[in-house]
Design goal:
Order of helices and strands: HHHHHHHHHHHH
Number of helices: 12
Mean pLDDT: 82
Function: Responsible for the transport of glutamate from the cytosol into the mitochondrial matrix with the concomitant import of a proton (symport system).
Number of domains: 1
Helix content: 55-70%
CATH topology: Mitochondrial carrier fold
Low-confidence stretches: 3-18
Structural class: mainly alpha
Catalytic activity: L-glutamate(in) + H(+)(in) = L-glutamate(out) + H(+)(out)
CATH class: Mainly Alpha
Protein name: Mitochondrial glutamate carrier 2
Subcellular location: Mitochondrion inner membrane
Largest sheet: none
CATH superfamily: Mitochondrial carrier domain
Shape: globular
Radius of gyration: 20 Å
Keywords: Membrane, Mitochondrion, Mitochondrion inner membrane, Phosphoprotein, Repeat, Symport, Transmembrane, Transmembrane helix, Transport
């Protein structure tokens, strides 16, 4: 995520605004919570589609995004569509705070002496920000995926005449810590790093470029009009999401601790890529891609809206740089 300013230029002139971290934390948290609440059912569908493996005779539990949505809603109801959302909502604020603050920090220090920030340095700043956030993202995604995929695993087990015990994010976390220590919560870190770093490398410069193309609010201002920043956030988010979807598929499969009987097990990123390619073909890496684009676009559009409105600044009684 980024502020509404034209981020291809230096933040030095407005350093105080760039490094007001408390508003960034609050705005990031608000944007994350609103975004997660709005799009979580689609994120659940995305997870189940990505974890679904093709059977020996080509059979699939879900034929499409719509089919997965219908079957999940029919079997688990409205609240079933929000399995794992509590974990996301709880951890989304520190994740977004780290991402935003780190991106601003690296952009500030990578700005050239003449006050410009070349595209390569924008990509480096974004990538480093993505690297920093995995300390929160990895356990958050690990626990969320177990909860989101539990219904699919339970449904498959039921067809085989078996039953699966109900689980909670807390019980999963405690079991992992008990058996594997704190490192148990970081299964799939390599794949998470690949996804988040590459996403940030694509998203931040792309948003800055698109945002710079639109009209400014005032003559001589670097601030884009609201609709430009909103659409730039949506477009950059969705395009970056599609570009890194193969890494998201690998991450999701590696972090699924429980598999349906007969499904392949994976030992690391390379093993997952190799087996998936061999048994399902290259199209498997784009499973859930449309879902992910639909999920990510409003998340980043909402983030830009929150920054534009200056929600945190209003709460804190501060003057918003967007007004």
């Amino acid at each position: 995520m980024a502020s509404n300013s034209n981020t291809s230029t230096s933040p030095v002139a407005s350093g105080a605004k760039q490094f007001a971290l408390l508003p960034k934390i609050i705005n990031g948290g608000i944007a994350g919570i609103i975004g997660v609440s709005c799009v979580f059912p689609l994120d659940l569908v995305k997870t189940r589609l990505q974890n679904q493996q093709v059977g020996p005779n080509g059979e699939k539990m879900y034929k499409s995004m719509l089919d997965c949505f219908k079957k999940t809603y029919r079997a688990e109801g409205y609240f079933g569509m929000y399995r794992g959302s509590a974990v996301n909502i709880l951890l989304i604020t520190p994740e977004k705070a780290i991402k935003l603050a780190a991106n601003d920090f690296f952009r500030h220090h990578l700005t050239t002496s003449n006050g410009t920030l070349p595209i390569t340095r924008q990509m480096a700043a974004g990538g480093l920000a993505g690297l920093c956030q995995i300390v929160i993202t990895t356990p958050m995604e690990l626990l969320k995926i177990q909860m989101q995929d539990a219904g699919r695993v339970a449904a498959q087990a039921k067809e085989l005449g078996k039953s699966m015990p109900k689980v909670s994010a807390t019980s999963i976390a405690m079991e992992l810590i008990r058996t594997k220590g704190i490192t148990g919560l970081y299964k799939g870190t390599g794949a998470t790093m690949l996804r988040d770093v590459s996403f940030s490398v694509v998203y931040f410069p792309l948003f800055a470029t698109l945002n710079a193309l639109g009209p400014r609010r005032d003559d001589g201002s670097n601030e884009a009009v609201f609709w430009c920043s909103f659409l730039s956030g949506c477009a950059a988010g969705s395009m970056a999401a599609l570009a890194v979807n193969p890494f998201d598929v690998v991450k999701t499969r590696l972090q699924a601790l429980k598999k349906v009987e007969g499904e392949m097990q994976f030992n690391g990123v390379a093993d997952c890529i190799g087996k998936t390619l061999k048994h399902e073909g290259v199209t498997a890496f784009f499973k859930g891609g449309l879902c992910r684009m639909i999920v990510i676009a409003p998340l980043f559009g909402i983030a830009q809206m929150v920054y534009f409105l200056g929600v945190a600044e209003a709460i804190l009684g501060m003057k918003s740089g967007n007004k």
